[in-house]
Amino acid sequence: VLENRDLQDSIKPQKVEFHSLNLNTTLHWQPGWAREARDVLYFVQYKVYGQSTWQNKDECWGISSLVCDLTHETSDIQEPYYSRVRAALAGVYSNWSLSCRFTPWRETMIGPPMVTVVNSNKSLTVRLQAPHSPYKRKKGSKIPMTNYYDLLYQVFIINNLLDEQHRFLVYEGKDKVIKIQDLRPGVSYCIVAKMYMPMLDHSSAYSSRQCTVL
After folding, report:
1. pTM score, two decimals?
2. Chain segment 154-178, per-residue pLDDT in tens
3. CATH code of the domain in which 13 resides
4. Is the same domain home to 65 and 141?
5. What is the pLDDT of residue 152?
6. Number of domain units in the chain
7. Beta partners for 41?
8. Which H/E stretch holds residue 7?
């Protein structure tokens, strides 16, 4: 029995955590300290906070991976969820390892917008597109994150003559197309943008740079 107890403890999953970007939500965990960790299988359950019964996640039942996609299971984004993971090796099962409480609406990270830049002689036209959620409309198109949150675009310009690192905020608002005027011909400019959520005071990472010479 003692050997089994040691084995149970040594395979028990560690650091069970939700990770979520644009409401794409996965559960991650780390293996226990058993030497035979690659032979361990994992079993995932989830529930809404307040429910008494745990649901099995069938696609993550007896898997060797350390990640499980729970996007579909957490689609009621205002609800708080829990998940838990246990491990099995050679017919011995560990105890369950519990995640922290996770509320998708509050805790998902917002990704940066897509940015395209078109230049004319002294101006730049910047087109912005908010990231999409994984959830679909009836017709099949993905629902943008702006449906779930009051989001603002923040657009920054980098004048490469002055300083690579210095970003000037040139626009904050909801317009998807903006024009930056009175720029200097022959100068290289880069545009980066991010999404900002005033209500939760969250910002996304910066988009990738779009650079152009006027």
Report:
1. 0.87
2. 999 998 776 667 889 999 999 999 9
3. 2.60.40.10
4. no
5. 97
6. 2
7. 88
8. helix 2-11
